[in-house]
Design brief:
Mean pLDDT: 77
Shape: globular
Order of helices and strands: HHHHHHEEHHH
Radius of gyration: 21 Å
Structural class: mainly alpha
Number of domains: 1
């Protein structure tokens, strides 16, 4: 039973590597299909046969991150239902429905960005943990604990939340070298419903994602290609 769970979790990790690192972020159908598999992975990780070692803690959070995609799918269905309702209700409800749809689009983009960043960070922690297990198992035993894994997961979600807040604030505030923090004039002049579509990632977040993608690819590639035979606790 333990061996079968390990095989299934390896497949789950391989699926996440393929969907996050190889497919673009806009491949929603692929991501949502992977999220359905993550529901099974979460049930496996709750099994009493699964230990609480760091890799399992990180995999549990990786499966939890896919819940954002399920919420994304629910919002998309809600936006589609609102569009149908606007056609039925007529022009009276069109303005309110259009604004609701724009808000749904903004929330959906936030969910996709948060899922992408959380997945990259958690895959990076999994790759780092696997590298330490495969190459320095005894020297890093004190660092590879469930406590540090939970602490790393907490930092991941804090960073994801911080990026969401910064990206939202970036559409409302701008930094002026002379006057300091000022309200973005576009946020005052453009209509409220159009302001909901002004979401864009900060420049730092774009470069952070590129660095994380390269780091994750290198870590997991080196583990897969140079895995020692005695690395039994590595999910690769």
């Amino acid at each position: 039973m333990i061996l079968s769970h390990r095989v299934l979790l390896r497949r789950f990790l391989l699926l996440k590597l393929v969907t996050v690192l190889l497919f673009p972020q806009g491949a929603v159908l692929t991501l949502v299909a992977g999220a359905m598999y993550s529901l099974q992975a979460r049930s496996w990780l709750r099994s009493p046969h699964i230990s609480t070692k760091p890799s399992n803690v990180l995999l549990r959070q990786l499966a939890l991150a896919d819940s954002l995609l399920l919420l994304y799918g629910a919002l998309r269905l809600g936006a589609a239902a609102a569009c149908v309702w606007a056609d039925v209700a007529g022009p009276v409800k069109t303005t309110e429905t259009s604004e609701c749809q724009r808000v749904c689009v903004l929330l959906c983009q936030w969910l996709l960005d948060a899922h992408h960043l959380a997945s990259l960070l958690l895959l990076g922690l999994l790759g780092l943990e696997a590298t330490l297990v495969c190459h320095w198992p005894l020297q890093t035993r004190a660092l590879r604990t469930s406590h540090f894994a939970q602490l790393g997961c907490g930092l991941v979600w804090a960073l994801v939340l911080m990026e969401v807040l910064v990206s939202q604030a970036g559409s409302v505030f701008v930094w002026d070298t002379a006057a300091g923090l000022q309200v973005n004039p576009r946020a005052l002049t453009q209509p409220r419903q159009h302001a909901a579509l002004s979401h864009s990632l900060p420049t730092f977040s774009v470069y952070l994602r590129r660095v994380l993608w390269l780091t994750d690819s290198w870590l997991h590639y080196t583990v897969l290609c140079n895995k020692p035979k005695r690395a039994k606790s590595c999910f690769h």
